[in-house]
Amino acid sequence: MQFQTKMLAYVVLALLVALAVSFLMTPVVKTFAYKVGAIDVPKDARRMHKVPIPRLGGLAIFIGFMVSILLFAEITPELRSILLGAVIIVVLGVVDDIMALPAMLKFVVQIVAALIPATHGVTILAFSNPNIFSDNLYWVLGSLSIPFTVLWIVAITNSVNLIDGLDGLANGVSAISATTMLVIALVSDQSAVAVVLAALVGACVGFMPYNMNPAKMFMGDTGATFLGYILATMSIQGLFKYYAVISFVVPFLILGLPIFDTTFAFIRRIAHGQSPMHPDRSHIHHRLIDMGLNQKQAVATLYVISAILGLSAVVLTTGGEQKAMLFFLALCIVAVVTARVVFPKEVKEELREELKEELGELKDHGHHGEEKPAEEPGKDADKEPDHRPGAWEEEEDQ
């Protein structure tokens, strides 16, 4: 009991310190971003913001996380390798946020960063066989362990980066995923993992007030890739190692949203005869915007989906497969019913307001003798938000 109380105290302190440092450092980092030119200027129709916004917010998240880790975490060789790789990821992100780097260069550096923990004990040795009819309960990776681990880390790093397309989306989804892992770590008495995840949650929450719509600051590649990297490595430490029987399912549930979005983005591009790294405007958040939702509604929808997947993972690790399936289905039904009740009314009101504004503009143009074709209602909602391609998306012409 005394050990659990002490562990819980460290977890709470790690969360609060990371939150406070991240929150307080964001204005400082914002000033630094203006000085070094890490600014996202709305120079084309892809941006939804109207004024230049700094995009180095991930640096504040990283600082808050590191301060908390150095104060409260036990620095094991495995954690040291994770932190070293994280530093490389953050340096890469900072440079990329200041001056756009080639996608292949970023990809190579990410592999190098992933190799550091993969060769220092942070490895996926085996996971449960998804074929329930097989006699073999586990797939032992053997010599494929390190390549598979590197693939997982790089994939999740870029998956989080790819969903960073709306204000507060990647930050919020990462916070939800980290909270889910934190709960599982607390339930299974994984004190070292819990402290690290608590620091990550606190750093995300501390940055949230500056990143929610309308965003005062973007996290940029610095934040998105850092969050993806830490989530990937800590999922190996806390899920693949401690929940071998269901290890194939739990990490994929917790990180289900970015994994699903990235997987189908690749399938969609290949099916259309495009390069898998070719950027497009068909991510999940884009489709929600095209359906008529505004940024806040789209982000809230994806938060709910991520939370449902996370809660299902918690139930799966504590209550078994049958309870998790029933819980997942129940939450899905509630979410669908809620969406059908709430969103149609809000969408109609938003479209009505946009139509009024556009009709007013047409009347003004008519008074000045200018004839311009009417824009379709909701056109502004179709503009793509700030989303700078990551290592798996090539840079578009600006």
Separation of termini? 59 Å
Estimate nothing, just give the exact number of structural domains.
1
Order of strands in the sheet with the most strands? 1-2
Biggest beta sheet attributes? 2 strands, antiparallel
| Residue share in β-strands | under 5%
Along the chain, the helix and strand elements come as HEEHHHEEHHHHHHHHH
Per the principal axes of the C-alpha atoms, what is the gross shape?
globular
Give average pLDDT, whole number: 78
Please identify the structural class as seen in this structure: mainly alpha
- In total, the number of strands is 4
Helical coverage, percent range: 55-70%
Low-pLDDT ranges: 370-387, 394-398
Radius of gyration: 22 Å
Tally of helical runs: 13
Task: Explain what this protein looks like in three dimensions.
The chain has one domain (2-338). The chain contains 13 helices and four strands. It has helices at residues 2-36, 57-72, 77-98, 103-118, 145-162, 169-187, 191-211, 220-240, 250-254, 256-271, 284-290, 295-319, 321-367; strands at residues 39-40, 53-54, 126-128, 138-140. Helix 2 (57-72) runs antiparallel to helix 7, helix 2 runs parallel beside helix 8 (220-240) and helix 5 packs across helix 10 (256-271). The longest helix has 47 residues, at 321-367. The protein is globular and about 70 Å long. The relative contact order is 0.14. Mean pLDDT is 78; it is low at 370-387 and 394-398.
Outline of this structure?
The chain is mostly helical and 398 residues long.
Summary keywords:
two-stranded antiparallel ribbon; 13 helices; two-stranded antiparallel sheet; disordered C terminus; mainly alpha; 398 residues
